[in-house]
Amino acid sequence: MTAATPLASSTTEALRPHAEQTYAAEIEALAKADDRQRPPGWQLSPWAVAQYLLGGQAADGTEITPKYIGARRVVEVAVSTLATDRALLLIGVPGTAKTWLSEHLAAAISGDSTLLVQGTAGTAEEAIRYSWNYARLLAEGPSEEALVPSPIMTAMGRGSVARVEELTRMPSDVQDALITVLSEKTLPVAELGTEAQAQRGFNLIATANDRDRGVNDLSSALRRRFNTVVLPVPDSAEDEVDIVSRRVEQLGRSLDLPRVPESITEIRRVVTVFRELRSGVTEDGQTKVKSPSGTLSTAEAISVVTNGIALAAHFGDGRLSPGDVASGIRGAVVQDRVSDGVVWDEYLETVVRERAEWRDLYRACREVGA
Amino acid sequence: MAVTTARAGSGAAGSDVHVLGIRHHGPGSARAVLTALEELEPDAVLIEGPPEADTLTGLVGAVEPPVALLAYHPDDPATSAFWPLATFSPEWQALRYAHDHDTAVRFCDLPAGVTLAERRADHTPGTEDENGQPEAPEDPADRAARRARLDPLAVLAEAAGYDDAERWWDDVVEQRDDGEPSPFPAITEAMAAVRTELAPEPDEREARREAHMRQTIRAALKEGYERLAVICGAWHAPALSDPKTNAHAKTATADRALLRGLSKVKTNVTWVPWTHGRLSTASGYRAGVTAPGWYHHLFTAPDRPIHRWLTDTARVLRDEDQPVSSAHVIEAVRLAETLATVRGRPLAGLSEVAEATSAVLCEGEESRAQLAHRRMVVGERLGAVPEDTPMVPLQRDLAATQRALRFKPEALSKRITLDLRTERQRDRSVLLHRLRLIGVNWGVPARDQVRSRGTFRESWQVQWAPELDVAVIEASRWGTTVAGAATARARDLAASAELPTLTDLTERCLLAELTDALPEVLDAVARRAAADRDVTHLMGALPPLARSSRYGDVRGTDAEALRTVADELLRRVCSGLAPAVANLDDDAATTMTGLVDAVHTAAHLLGADAERRWLDTLDTLAAREVVPGLVAGRAHRILHDSGRVDSATVRRRLGLAVSRAGDPAHAAAWLEGFLSGSGMILAHDHELLAVVDTWLTGLSDGAFTAVLPLLRRTFGAFASPERRSIGEVVARPRPAEDTGQPHTGPGIDTRRAAPAMTTVAAIIGG
């Protein structure tokens, strides 16, 4: 399984390196100075994990970039939960950095964020438990060699943190396969008459969102086994602008986009549009606007700006202009042609048009719409 | 083990003065004070508070906190000051200790009489903090010093990087091992440093307070007490130490000079029940504590406060039908403790348990967690005082009535519904009404959700707030019993009130069953009605009076006198109405229309004779030219609805009102008056609609534009089903004879009619 295959590749060429690869230096610096007690199986103490996520400076002067911008208590509760070997459930509307936070938690605690099960409507129970290498199964009969462990089973064996993304998108019966894992910390293999026992350090981080359509609510039996942390939408516009510009810069670097001068005004405008449509009221609290059907998360704002930068770099004059983001905004807002189209037009005419300094954006959006 | 404390050497040789600087309402301080007192075994305890309250310390055994010491001026009870004490207040614990050990106890702050005298001089009514400081606007520069003085330990805690002073106290003071010295000398030293930094010279008032404290200490020593324990705010601790060793203290001579010539007013003091809600800063109580429930818990829980707190939270959630198991509580405790570790704190505190509550017990549901948490953190708790507490007679009467009616005051706001047909519930209603009359708003009438048409049901929102005790004392100038006070108050009001207020008062007298006051009030109504030339006053006064006459039935009061007065009032209205409605401007006409409606309802209540008289008046009035359109329209509607005027007449009058010769604005106002309330008459009476239609289509462009807003207002007020049915009638092809025009073709020429229809649709479609 771990043998070199054509699939394996070098990190530097990876489109999106894992958190533990990108921030290897930071983790190492923290680990070196970390003299606090570490829970069994953890490579950092809970305190250092919190610092890794919230940012700061390591003892040797290494700059620790903040990974999660927002309430400190969210991170502290999450880390403490994992330290008490309770499973962690991160809940929030799409784009509130659930996946991001879970990846970094796993990277900091176990040094491995790759033990991942992606929840979809088609996820089968094998993805959580184990499956078989059928060629060997037929040739040799049930044996340990023929067993193909799931990421969760692997994590149990290694004593690492496993991640389940979009837990609520899995069918309910598949979700419930986690109950034994979480309560007994063991995974029976009935065919072999054995079981995989979790090593110390094993834990599970699941993410779920409560806004999307087509979700399967967790059974209360499963829900009881998690500590739940609700990730809030960024409090202030300033926080959100900060998140967007940070991520845009990182993405631009990893995609090797040509450098486009930071356009903080453009980012601010995109964030403002998203926040106003999301909350249904303008930032000054004066005008009510309709909310579209989409979620308009921070993640979408990030992709609108990244997209705009790519446009500006390759087709524009190298500066992020309103025209570069206009179509992105429209695409994010108008999910449903008819109803969202009305919402967007109304917003353009009643809010964007009224703002003298937004003239250029208004014109750009009108052109895109026409 | 001897406790070393700051000693003041101001007394005789061999005497001990131990100054215990505390944090007001700090459970940690309270515990430390108790320990210190038990080790010291003083023969006298001095406590920061008004010395007038010395006489009340004997009641401590029977008083149940939270309570407050209330000091008030007997002639002007609104001038008052409070010193609230909760179970977890160090002052309270010191009082309890003195009571339980038969130790002498004295309050050593400036007399409340001085504080009240200052207040009266300043004329600045305001709420009080526990130090008796009048609330005054302050400039931001003083705020730091002021805050330091109010809660100096919080400032120290903040400097040490703590957000909660109690936690800091726990970490620094409580978590010490046995055998370590008492924390109080260190506190005195720290405070001396803070004072030197922030306010080397206390202001005059502060200086006087501290001088008085020192003088009280000296007096106690002179009396022969040898071991004194002084419990005061930490801020004052250095000032009460030996002047030789501490720069903040002063000598006896200086103190005497400071205290000379202070003016002082007569003061009564008593215990009053207090609530946790009033202690919490959430209700705007300035020097309060944020989480009285939590502090109470910290002080009363014998051990494992976190475990107990989360178990209690789980119980609260279960009461709300939330499934919370013991397993949840176990995990919540573990999370709270781990969080404390991650945050580098030796013990979990309020914020950790709050987060454990929301992440584990409530499974991430923030709103539910907030609910449970708020209930736990503030924890509505109302104190109690024994019967032999000094009270004004009115308070005693109220307490006796409450007992007799089994109507206990509670701190929690609650909605109650009283069925006036049962005697006890009616008595409760009467009590609440009487209290309202004398300004004690224990209950506020609430809108009934299941509004029954009968008059036998009443809804109240009741909540006993600590201020109500003051209100009761204040009301005691009206009398010694609730009934007596309410009667006196009603008479007093009747002597000066204007007519509408007066009839309102009549109603309140009836509700409060003040049979003694009622004749006088009615007499005043009659006299005032005779003298008042303003018909609108009479019209405003009539409805409450007419309403009141109904109550006679349920409450068994004699309503005859009432009806007589109301009848007379109506007579005066009828005779004065005609001149009053002539030539009014628009605003006055609008007011008048409202009054006409109200009087009509009242006349209806007063019975057939009264109603006939009223309708006669309207009838003669309606046709007059000088009556504003709005009033005339309204009068016609009333007459039409009560069958006094038939449809044909109404149509004719409408026709006249809307005729070409008239002013279109007058016509529109007439229509508004006629149609306000309901437009269904248009949908049913097609001929009437035709008159309106003809008028409207005949208007010139300019005139039409002018009346359009008025029409919109009229039709816009209709409910949409009404508008729709009117619209349907208009859209329906009318039989030709209805229009009064000869039948000229095979039907309506819809093409030609289209513009008119669009217009009408635009108006009534809203």
From TrEMBL, chain A:
ATPase dynein-related AAA domain boundaries = 88-226
InterPro entries, alphabetized:
ATPase_dyneun-rel_AAA, CbbQ/NirQ/NorQ/GpvN, P-loop_NTPase
From the Swiss-Prot or TrEMBL record, what is one GO molecular function term? Answer: ATP binding
Q: Which PANTHER family match?
A: MAGNESIUM-CHELATASE SUBUNIT CHLD, MOXR FAMILY PROTEIN
The identity of this protein, by name, is ATPase
Annotated source species: Halostreptopolyspora alba
Automatic annotation (TrEMBL), chain B:
Q: Where is this region: Disordered?
A: 122-142, 729-751
Superkingdom field: Bacteria
Q: Which residues form a coiled coil?
A: none
Q: Where is the composition biased (Acidic residues)?
A: 127-139
Which InterPro entries is this protein grouped with? DUF5682 (IPR043737), LolB (IPR050458)
Name recorded for this polypeptide: Uncharacterized protein
Q: Which organism is it from?
A: Halostreptopolyspora alba
